[in-house]
Amino acid sequence: MSAFGLVAITLVLLASLASSRDLPFFVKSLRDLHRGPPQLPMKSRAEPVTGWITQKIDHFDESNTDTYQMRYLVNDEFETEGSPIFIFVGGEWEIEPSMVKGGLWYDLAKEHNGVLVYTEHRYYGESLPTTTFSTENLKYLHVKQALADLAHFIETFKAENPNLTNSKVLLSGGSYSATMVVWFKRLYPELIVGGWASSAPLLAKLNFVEYKEVVGKAFLELGGQQCYNRIQNGIAELEELFDNKRAAEARAMLRLCSNFDEHNDLDLWSLFGSISNIFSGIAQTQREGDIEFYCNYLLSFDDDASAIANFAYYAWGSPNCLDPTYKETVEYYLWGINNLDESRAWYYQTCNEYGWYQTSGSSNQPFGTKFPATLYTELCSDVFDHQFGNEKIVENTVQTNEDFGGMEPEVENIYVTHGALDPWHPMGLGTAEGATIISKASHCNDFTSISSQDSEEMRAAKERLSELVREWLA
């Protein structure tokens, strides 16, 4: 292994994983799959203004008068009388200025003299309705409450700004916040004239086996058959070492901490789920050349199992040892109660509304067999409430699909885009349902301005959005 390989893989994979507390292996790997859109190159010199709006903690209980302060950012550098309002909807992350200072949404706002707004989702960033994230307090963390926040924001923002009283409103979002754009149009169609949903999962599903299939497809299509085989064979060999009472050999290769218990299924599942999530994070956020780079790294080793073991070790910054124990994950999420950790908030949403657990349930992927749905449902039960068993989580996903229509949301004037290599896209609309699928693109790859570096398909998708925005604002 070259020094370049060690340094490069460490820096690239760890860039987004800094934390005030040492994150367990499994929590780290999940965080990389549930983060905000990448920061955009900023064109504007204008500094967004931070605003706050009073929101009800519970929009659906008139007897509950408790409120909280929701944060938002505004860039009004193009504002005129009647300016359209271009809102980027925040998801399970902290909002930041680049989304209202650059990118395609910014360009469209500039073209139409629009006001740019970035709203923050309740329980994330600084928009905190409760002083702890206890399970009892998290009952107010639900997409219906967040959509009601957004509706109240639009009505209040227009009412408090005389220039914007009669303005048209457009929404955009990425990933979960793109889901919100679609569902907002379903629940509050009169408040917006149109929206753009990039990489929106719409079908709630507990056992999301398709996710790892697309991750494998990305490594096969961009990295080649030899790379795919190395991943598949290396993980299979490591599984076999644990299965055939050669755990000491596997532990040494993987540099596992002494508290790891290979006889505990939950520890084994956490280990192999975390390893698979390293590959998932690369595929989900990949740009041109990324997968090829990592495949070259993997193929630089003499054997398959060593390649995977070293890949996992260096991906997490060369610690003294890797700690993928299930107990550490549970303790971290419980620590998040009083420390208002957003990882705990998002995991609650998956237990209570969506599932979307990226498991090893399909044989059509190279990441092995040892991270079943039970890993995720057990975590729901141990971290939140024993009511969150498998049956209850399935009921919750069924309810979400009934509430919002699943793959048939029945909305108009929402432009849906997906990357063909985005692992989330199987839970979203396809071309048959009117979505635009961009080949070789992944998750939320289309927020940047139109440029000469865009593929022909990417450029066409962005130009189509521009045409639709002109129609909606005509």
Word description of this protein:
- With 474 residues, the protein is of the alpha/beta class.
- It has 2 domains: 3-31 and 206-398, no CATH class; 49-202 and 410-473, Rossmann fold, CATH 3.40.50.
- It has 16 helices and 10 strands.
- The protein has helices spanning 3-14, 25-31, 103-111, 143-159, 176-187, 210-223, 225-243, 247-254, 265-285, 290-298, 304-315, 326-339, 342-354, 373-383, 390-404, 456-473; strands at residues 49-56, 67-75, 85-89, 115-119, 169-174, 194-198, 205-207, 355-357, 414-419, 436-438.
- It has an 8-stranded mixed sheet, with helices on both faces. It has a two-stranded parallel sheet with strand order 7-8.
- Helix 3 links the parallel strand 3 and strand 4.
- Helix 6 packs across helix 10 and helix 13 (342-354) packs across helix 15 (390-404).
- It is globular.
- The model is unreliable at 1-20 (pLDDT under 50).
Q: Based on Cα principal axes, name the global outline.
A: globular
Tell me roughly what share of residues is in helical segments: 40-55%
Task: Provide the low-confidence segments as ranges.
Answer: 1-20
Give the distance, in angstroms, between the N- and C-terminal Cα atoms. 59 Å
Strand-residue fraction?
5-15%
Q: What is the structural class?
A: alpha/beta
- Largest sheet features: 8 strands, mixed
Give the averaged pLDDT, no decimals. Answer: 93
Q: Give the H and E element order.
A: HHEEEHEHEHEEHHHHHHHHEHHEEH
Radius of gyration: 22 Å
Number of strands: 10
Tally of helical runs: 16
**Strand order in the largest sheet:** 1-2-4-3-5-6-9-10
